[in-house]
Specification:
This protein has about 180 residues and is of the alpha+beta class. The protein has five helices and five strands. Helix content is about 60%, strand content about 15%.
Length: about 180
């Protein structure tokens, strides 16, 4: 027979985990927002460029924090539901290794996205042109480590996996600023 008191306590704990995770996300978002703004203000003087870079970097950080918090809350909730998570964690390592072979393109997308971000090649709001095999031009409306989304001249959304970008022409970057660096 199921003990009702145990279930109620377990549900309250899980709701508590979710609330704490939401609080951590809120605090982390504010913390990273302040740090990123402070760091970027030193490098970018123009407010348009500063806002685009902040939106790009903070979007990536927000998504990363969300994924980590969801995994932690899920594992803690499973543990409270008396599911032994040790085999899950061990299995996750083996499965992760197997998936890494199967997801080579996804890994390439993430690595390409990291380099696009680190090398400051594009920001949300920039006008860009991608080279073969994509051959698209438009305004960057979203950037994640996996893909870049642009709105082309016809108004269509184009989702470009980052590993498919063989060359990138950024028509919004100030050439004088690049020469000064």
């Amino acid at each position: 027979m199921i003990n009702l008191e145990t279930w109620v306590i377990t549900i309250i704990k899980i709701v508590g985990y979710i609330l704490v995770a939401a609080l951590i996300f809120y605090i982390a978002k504010r913390f990273f927002s302040k740090i990123i703004k402070k760091v970027l203000r030193k490098k970018y003087k123009e407010s348009e460029e500063l806002e685009a870079k902040q939106k790009t970097i903070l979007g990536v950080i927000d998504n990363t924090i969300k994924i980590i918090l969801i995994i932690v809350v899920l594992l803690m909730a499973l543990s409270d539901l008396n599911v032994n998570i040790a085999p899950l964690l061990a299995g996750a390592g083996v499965v992760g290794f197997a998936i890494s072979f199967a997801c080579q393109n996804l890994i390439k997308d993430f690595l390409s996205g990291m380099f696009l971000l680190i090398e400051d090649q594009l920001d949300v709001g920039d006008r860009v042109q991608f080279g073969p095999p994509i051959n698209q031009e438009g305004e960057v409306i979203d950037f994640t480590l996996r893909k870049t989304t642009i709105r082309n001249d016809e108004g269509a959304l184009v989702f470009v996996p980052n590993n498919q970008i063989s060359y990138l022409i950024n028509k919004s970057k100030n050439l004088k600023k690049i020469k000064d660096e």
